[in-house]
Amino acid sequence: MPLFRRKEQPSAEVDFTKLPRHIAIIMDGNGRWAKKRGLPRTAGHAAGAETFRSIATYCKEIGLDYLTVYAFSTENWKRPAEEVSAIMGLLKKYLLEAIGQMERDKVKMEFFGDLSPLTPELRELCQRTREISKHYEGCQVNICLNYGGRDELMRGAMAYAKDCAEGKADPNHLTQEQFGQYLFSKGVPDPDLVIRPSGELRLSNFLLWQSAYAEFYFTDVLWPDFSKEELHKAIAAYQHRSRRFGGV
Ligand code: IPE
Ligand code: IPE
Ligand code: MG
Ligand 2 atom closest to Cα of 28? Predict the structure, then answer.
């Protein structure tokens, strides 16, 4: 047995009959993509939004059940105000388009995160998107917006404590399934595969609870350059993994 780990070299051969049920993506690298081209960071975000549109459409085409994307973290407010407002502007544009095409696309849309710091207009758009699409079956896309894994867990803990104080929950008995009901992801199975483009090897506060047994796939490709082929590589790599969940 060699003592070193063989570098994973996934062939992009995907078995479409054995897709992961849920893929989560940290859409990272927009700023560097723009910088490489001498463009402002906001141009990178616009390109990243296009990539999101095409990857989400493709995921629906291949029959993926759940796609969760990290669009804006609880930490991203630290960025310059102009960048934050450009991202929010792109989000508004995306939601307006999505609402216009909902009858055709029939993708169920959810939002993970505390939407209260968003503008009333954006909040209303998120609410409308959620409302219109809530009965669609098939692909569900979850957009993580002002989302942080720690924030989600703390909110869950506070809501649970409140239920205990009001006699609606038993403080001496809590299962993982019950606690999962207090999270933004309630009702959604855990991600099987978490993809992070852009070369960073960290979670950046993404789905801390839910990714306990996820398979991870990292690539140097920057999000705006992420393509169907890159997705195939990630899924093919996933399909070569052996998931044991602590067993043998
Ligand atoms: C991801 O791209 C988009 C958001 C975090 C909103 P970045 O803007 O983080 O791009 P890099 O990491 O600076 O290249
Ligand atoms: C994670 O990317 C958040 C999103 C992609 C929305 P960041 O670019 O914010 O993460 P760090 O700062 O490199 O950890
Ligand atoms: Mg980044």
Answer: 5
Annotated catalytic residue 142: no
Give yes or no for residue 6 having a pLDDT over 70.
no
Q: Where are the domains of the chain?
A: 3-149+189-239
CA distances from 190 to 60, 72, 128, 170, 209 (A): 18, 20, 25, 25, 9
Q: Where does residue 235 fall: left (phi above 0), alpha (psi -120 to 50 degrees), or beta otherwise?
A: alpha
Instruction: Provide the whole-model pTM.
Output: 0.95
Place 33 in a pLDDT band, splitting at 50, 70 and 90.
very high
Query: Which tens digit of pLDDT belongs to each residue from 67-103?
Result: 999 999 999 999 999 999 999 999 999 999 999 999 8
Q: Is 223 in the pocket of ligand 2 (CB under 6 A)?
A: no
Protein residues with CB under 6 Å of any ligand 1 atom: 27-32, 72, 76, 87, 198
| 215-242 tens-digit pLDDT | 999 999 999 999 999 999 999 999 999 9
Containing 238, the helix (H) or strand (E) segment is helix 228-239
Q: Check if CATH label 3.40.1180.10 holds for domain 3-149+189-239.
A: yes
Of ligand 1's listed atoms, the one at least distance from the Cα of 35 is: 14
Distance 214 CA to ligand 1 centre (A): 23
28 has catalytic annotation: yes
The whole-angstrom separation of Cα 198 and Cα 219 is 6
